[in-house]
Amino acid sequence: MNREKVVFAFFIVLALTLNFGFVLGEMQNPEHHNAFELFAAIVVSLIATVLKFGDRTHIGAVLLATSLVADLQLLLAAMVWGYADYVSESGLTTSIVSSVVSLSAGALLANVTSVILLMVETVMIRR
User: Fold this and answer.
1) Which residue of 27, 47, 78, 118 has the lowest C-beta tally within 10 Å?
2) So where are the chain's domains?
3) Which residues, in sequence order, are CB contacts of 13 under 8 Å at separation 6+?
4) Is residue 41 within 8 Å of residue 22, measured between CB atoms?
């Protein structure tokens, strides 16, 4: 068993599950979406991105692109949340929470694409 591939797959799937856990819940209810879970999703997604550097295959390039999209969307979600909490006078409104969850859902879609590509690559190697 290749430990490098296990770690690689572990972080890709962990990024997906943490992102899913953050998005899960009523979209406009801030009590259903934990800031620490968003932070964990960002950190793990960034680790997964770093692990994808160096793969020079076509699938590797697409995996890196999906990871960069997820990173961008999660970072934007965190910035919107931070703006609402620390800059905006209105605070964390339902529309802001909806925007944060929507951006995170976009990252979730990118992470799902990444996991599907990982499974396709695994199937292609077996043959």
Assistant:
1) 27
2) 3-126
3) 115
4) yes
